[in-house]
Design brief:
Rossmann fold, 3-stranded antiparallel beta sheet, 12 strands, globular, binds zinc ion
Length: about 290
């Protein structure tokens, strides 16, 4: 039996599309298209205090302008209920720790908290203490002890479900088979593998695309406004010029997305971050 490939573009509407997150969106699209599979769009706005509707609209427009189209939009996180998912998980507990008590305790969440019997606080998942092995399509085999990250919060003290829970629940519900995202989440994948398994689901394949860092050495964000897709478009840059740059970072020559989908090969993708120089516009030939 073959399973159809299902990938998802999952933007968080708190910041605009830029050259950095476009790398992962493009890799997601190419991977699903090469496999003849389906591309879903899902808006990750579980934290409504950070989500902005106009940014969601801008992101969809930018994705469409780039040609990163989707076959179906699944419900945004604001329309989903995670209560049943949380209820289905064994090994959860209520944690009354504050960020301050954790910091004062040396930065690690105390394991004793699992048996403390708090009734008010965040809900955390008690991770098994073991090494998780998973494969990344770019970085190869990984062995990570998820407990290094501490027990993940699934529902905050204020009742808001977290990205940790929502992204796994949504990917299972949406039938996602391929997760493609930025390399900053590479090792944290071990935590998510544990959650997939706790739900009795088979984890997807993982592909962590290279991070892009601005001239200040930091991962690109909305503060790097000139590197935004909208800013580039408005300054007259053609989308094929953007494709040429992004595809190059993914180890593919040329500026045609359809051709790139056939040429897509995860092992050709670089593992190291991309550091943009001060004169990135001329260095990337984006004028
Ligand atoms: Zn705690």
């Amino acid at each position: 039996m073959t399973t159809e490939a299902v990938g998802r573009l999952a933007p968080t509407p708190s910041g605009e599309l830029h050259l950095g997150n476009t790398v992962a969106f493009t890799a997601c699209w190419l991977s699903a298209r090469k496999a003849g599979g389906t591309v879903l769009l899902r808006i990750e706005d579980v934290d409504r205090s950070r989500a902005r509707r106009h940014i969601e609209d801008d992101q969809k427009r930018d994705l469409e302008w780039l040609g990163l189209t989707w076959d179906e939009e699944t419900p945004p996180q604001r329309h989903r209920d995670y209560g049943a998912w949380l209820g289905a998980l064994p090994d959860t507990y209520v944690c009354a720790c504050t960020r301050r008590t954790i910091t004062e305790g040396g930065g690690n969440h105390p394991l004793e908290c699992r048996t403390r019997g708090s009734t008010v606080g965040a809900v955390r998942y008690a991770l098994p203490d073991r090494v998780v092995r998973f494969g990344d399509r770019v970085h190869g085999p990984r062995a990570v002890r998820p407990l290094e990250f501490g027990d993940p919060v699934l529902r905050r003290k204020d009742g808001v479900f977290t990205y940790n829970l929502a992204v796994v629940a949504d990917d299972i519900a949406d039938g996602v088979t391929e997760v493609v995202r930025g390399a900053d989440l590479l090792d944290f994948t071990a935590v998510q593998v544990e959650l997939w398994q706790a739900f009795g689901a088979t984890p997807p394949t993982w592909l962590h695309a290279p991070l892009v860092r601005g001239p200040d050495g930091r991962k690109l964000s909305k503060s790097h406004g000139a590197l935004g897709i909208a800013a580039l478009r408005e300054s007259g840059v053609d989308r094929r010029a953007i494709h040429r740059v992004v595809l190059g970072w993914l180890g593919i020559e040329g500026d045609d997305l359809e051709a790139a989908a056939q040429a897509f090969e995860p092992s050709a993708i670089r593992t190291a971050p991309i550091d943009l120089p001060e004169d990135w516009r001329s260095a990337l030939d984006l004028r």
